[in-house]
Amino acid sequence: MISRRRLLVGGGALAGTGLGLLWLRQGGDSSLPPDTSATGGLRLDSGLGKGFDRFLASLAGTDPLGAAWVEAEGVEHIGSLVDALDGSIHTAQNARELADAVAGRVRADFQEGLTCRVGGWVLSGTECRLVGLRHLLLRLEPGNAQLVAAETKVPSVADYAEGHIAPLANWGPKSTRVGEKFNVQIDGHSGLWFQFSGAPAHARIVIDGELVKTSVSAKVVTSGLFGEMQERILATPGRYDIALVDPVRGIRQPVGQFVVRPRKAASGPGKAGFCEIEKWGPQSTRVGLAKNEQPDGAMGLWVRSACMPRDAQLIVGDDVVKSSVKKFGLSAAIPAVFLEAPGELELVLYSPATGQRQPVGVLVVE
Amino acid sequence: MIDDLAVSPQPYAGGLKCDVCIVGAGPAGISLALTLARLRPEWRVVLLEAGGRDNASERERDIYRVSQSGRDYSVLDISRRRKLGGTTAHWGGWSKPLDDSDFETNPSWDMPAWPIGPADLKAYYQRACDWCELGGSDFEAEAVAGRFPGAMLEYGDLQGIGQRLFRFSPPTRFGARYAPELEAQDNLTCLLHANLLQLVRAQGKLVEAVVAPLDGDTLRIAADRFVLAMGGMETTRQLLHLRERDVDDGEGVYSPHLGRYFADHFGFSPARLLAPAGLKYHMFTESQERLMPVLTFSNEALRGEGQNNACMRLYANAPDPLLSPAYAEHAAFGFRPGEYWQYDVKMTVEPRPHRDSRLALTNERCELGLRRLHLTWKIDERDFTSAYQLLDRLGQACSVAGLGRLQITRENSPELRANVSGGCHHMGTTRMAARVGDGVVDPDLRVFDLENLYIASSSVFPRYGYSNPTLTIVALSLRLAEHLAGVSAGGRP
Ligand SMILES: Cc1cc2nc3c(=O)[nH]c(=O)nc-3n(C[C@H](O)[C@H](O)[C@H](O)COP(=O)(O)OP(=O)(O)OC[C@H]3O[C@@H](n4cnc5c(N)ncnc54)[C@H](O)[C@@H]3O)c2cc1C
């Protein structure tokens, strides 16, 4: 644990800049107990004044980034961070000027190549120092820990209490097949409707534990499967819980389950010698996108079966693709070039020793 | 007319004579043969195809077997088809002309680029779009930006970055799509299961092609001119067979360039981008039209810095929790207001011509009696450096413009470099050049040392860009058709 004293060593920082700090210094008297009303309850005292503290406090959600940067750089001294902040940041006269000065410095950092890396992210040096500074300051006050954790915690709707929000007459569609969008809307999402009467305007739909875009009118709530979630859910057969939540009251009203059914196998089951295929996936992808990407860009595909012949190979269309028999069944690599056109790729298992073939199913490229 | 030598060889037993003999009925051979036959109704055109209408048998596929060393060309076995329509039997239909700068010599590379320019191909590209059924021939990315607000990053904002557009063929299966037209063309004979075994040369020109079905008699075809359109590997294989002495210090088939500079576009997914929601740098369909904008280097960077051309596609994906999309709500970090997503960045990279990346003949023979090929695929490490510079440029441009941040998810490491795979585009081994010392074919696609042998294939590409090659292959074939017919662009004989 780094002590406050150690952190502040080198904290003649501010004086070093020789700059005005007019607004920043207002209320910067550290002999008074910290006033946390303007910092969302966070106790944070940079010594640079309330205005700057408020600014740092406003950088919600950046603590993991700050922590990662501080750790990677081995930064211990707040003073050195403050020192490195640009003069224009120090001379800001009000919140607006401070935000503008930071934004200007961030932009200039990128232009001048003054960047830092955190977890692979390329950020401006100023960004890293600010989130690092915030992290170090927050860490000095153990009371901040809970608030910081709450900042970054994705609100878990699963924690909401079950309860009643509004009467539900009906909803739909209730199912689809792998890879098949339904009720497709203009922006490409699959639309779902719910006949709730009198749902509050702030109510939201939750699908598979995630809040999704929702629009509420007096008699109907509409929502659906969007973007990445749509891809993920439509690629994987299963049952997905749907609920209506009221984030203000922290209540969750279960609606039902949306079912994604597997695609039918291309043809009938194979002859004896191949066991039944329990599961396989991914069953769909998008043009140009190899899900479960392998180092060579191919899409990793798995077939689960209890008694896969040792010499089993996977045939895609007419081509045998790289595959290997595993404990769980078989894994194979579908070359990325096979995913360039929308359509359906028929997958068949083949055993050269016996000449037997076992249809697996159809991989949908949307 | 289409005839199958495996089924009815009798009418051809005495051989054939024609004005132009084209070998290989993929998109190159089909578009060339039909155009030429239409331009010259008084000529007889013969189109020879090794495969039939169905997929090749195991025996036929074995003819393509190639040994390899160097980096693993893992797509080798799936990268070509032996049937009417050629490899369009399973191509993806991604289509785009080369960028203007792709025709230009890159000052930091050691080989000259195209001896022709975009203006020489413009009219042919337009017609190639029809052949490939693209539903449009406009490749201006700006136009798309205007039509689909929010689909692309704003122009002018992104220093050092350019934007381009792909279109998509349905994809047209040239065999099925054009078989009725081949059937209907009276002065054209397309022979299926006609494997080219040998080209016979006499005094600086070719006189005959010897062909045979797998189980049948040979047939000799005499022609005034010959075109090899057998794809980017078999065409080179035949030219290497034309060497009567095992030397490569001369011109044309004896050029030291023949078989060298084998290239394929390669790709990988090295990064994630935090950027405005709803970007469409991936294939999307709008009113029946399939389009795909991509991000590239700007022309200035390509020309001024001698970069490889490369393109980036974006696919929305689950965010990295370290820097969630909500991070972009911090206006003080320069972000423009709006909703943000995270995207996986997929790159396709232009390889520079690599002398030691090559096709060579081995002493093993296939059942046709042809020596088998050996492939050594190489990529210059500097090609990866350039690709990562493009990524840096994108990250910097988005960050400066307040439109995002970049995360490198895979470093430019030996492991990454060792594992990239090809796109099944066989380019470079019969390169086109203005000077005989720089290539195998001249700007009219004629093999330098043979007065009547031409090549229609991506093997003639001397610089590769990142665009998939088929649209350019067809454009070159249409241009060759007019050259052979003796007409000027778009004209009549
Ligand atoms: C999986 C896959 C996806 C692809 N996706 C795209 C894409 O999205 N966009 C794109 O632009 N390109 C794509 N390509 C590449 C595209 O298929 C080729 O660029 C194109 O088919 C080349 O056309 P070609 O006429 O030169 O050769 P081919 O199409 O290969 O045709 C050559 C013909 O010559 C015949 N032949 C070979 N040897 C002999 C012989 N000895 N005698 C007689 N005939 C012979 C063959 O049977 C064949 O019919 C893809 C390729 C693959 C494998």
UniProtKB/TrEMBL annotation, chain A:
This is Uncharacterized protein. It comes from Parahaliea mediterranea.
UniProtKB/TrEMBL annotation, chain B:
The keyword Oxidoreductase applies. Belongs to the GMC oxidoreductase family. Its cofactor is FAD. Keywords: FAD, Flavoprotein, Oxidoreductase. Residues 353-476 form the Glucose-methanol-choline oxidoreductase C-terminal domain. Pfam families: GMC_oxred_C. InterPro entries: FAD/NAD-bd_sf, GMC_OxRtase_C, P2Ox-like. It comes from Parahaliea mediterranea. PANTHER family: PYRANOSE 2-OXIDASE (PTHR42784). This is GMC family oxidoreductase. The keyword Oxidoreductase applies. One of its GO terms (molecular function) is oxidoreductase activity, acting on CH-OH group of donors.
